[in-house]
UniProtKB/TrEMBL annotation:
UniProt cross-references to Pfam families, sorted A to Z: ABC_tran
Keyword Transport: no
TM regions (residue ranges): none
Protein's name in the database: Phosphate import ATP-binding protein PstB
EC number: 3.6.3.27
């Protein structure tokens, strides 16, 4: 027999729950007594693409690096507040960093392939994390990740002969992304601050983010606001290491609530 539910209950039962993957609560970090990030609070939701925007030096890259504990490698780091991945406290001294960096892959703006074969660039992490343990499954993984990054057709005959560092820079960038994907991360932190990318490569990278979104939660820094507007579901505006505003991309770009966000958007060509 059908029992109708009160409206609030029936809506709750159809709306998918918002799952938090990474959570920051009043998070801040100082390096050598310089406060680089301050009082940042927001949740990264499973399956979303979050774009980070802000002026040069706002703290976009610093935030990405802080999430995978790459910022506190320097001496004199002091953190405030909380930064969590699921139920793991990222700044707990016992945090398993290799596991953290497997589940949250950081792809920096500088291309840094290993000076080893293309195959080894992909296989290294997969071996380390015991993702592919025999030659056949490794071959499948190498092919799958290179295909996902639109690189397979270019390098398939040179996997063992050619070094990652011998590829042209735009292909090295794709190789670094493939290397990150090979360990099957849940979250991708993509830092693409640099503007030195040609239009064809830019279009391919944007297409890739769209494709990767199906399987990953993504935090993205792009060279232009136009790209963030095109790709991101939500956008966080940072200035001077602080979160100014976070909202849907549509709200941020058309009806931002904070005057500093409106000024930043208006003064930067979208
Ligand atoms: N390892 C570090 N030690 C000390 N200060 C740092 C470190 N890393 C970043 N900073 C400082 O943190 C601030 C934010 O830098 P960050 O590179 O995150 O800015 P950004 O928003 O990514 O800028 P851009 O768009 O120019 O890349 C800068 O003042 C920078 O000097």
């Amino acid at each position: 027999m059908f029992h109708s539910l009160p409206l609030h209950q029936s809506l709750a039962s159809v709306a998918p729950p918002v799952e938090t993957v990474i959570s920051l609560q009043n998070f801040g970090i100082a390096l050598d007594r310089k406060q680089v990030l301050s009082d940042i609070t927001f949740d990264l939701r499973r399956g979303e693409v979050l774009g980070l925007i802000g002026r040069a030096g706002a703290g976009k890259s610093a935030l990405l690096r802080a999430i995978v504990r790459l910022l506190d490698e320097s001496r004199g780091a002091a953190t405030q507040g909380r930064l969590r991945y699921l139920d793991h406290d990222i700044y707990d001294p016992h945090c398993d960093l290799p596991h953290l960096r497997r589940m949250i892959a950081f792809v920096p703006q500088q291309v840094t392939p290993f000076p080893t074969s293309i195959w080894d660039n992909i296989a290294y992490g997969a071996r380390l994390h015991r993702i592919a343990m025999d030659k056949a499954s490794m071959a499948d993984l190498v092919e799958e990740t290179l295909r996902r990054c639109h690189l397979w057709h270019v390098v398939r005959d040179d996997l063992h002969r050619r070094r990652g560092t011998d590829l042209p820079v735009h292909q090295q960038r794709l190789l670094c992304l493939a290397r990150a994907l090979a360990v099957r991360p849940e979250v991708l932190l993509l830092d693409r601050t640099t503007g030195s990318i040609d239009q064809t490569e830019l279009a391919l990278l944007n297409q890739l983010v769209g494709e990767l979104k199906a399987d990953h939660t993504i935090v993205l820094v792009t060279p232009t606001l136009a790209e963030t507007a095109q790709i991101a579901d939500r956008v966080a505006h940072l200035e001077q290491g602080r979160l100014v505003e976070i909202d849907t991309a549509e709200m941020i770009f058309t009806a931002a609530l904070h005057p500093d966000t409106r000024t930043f958007i208006d003064s930067t060509a979208v």
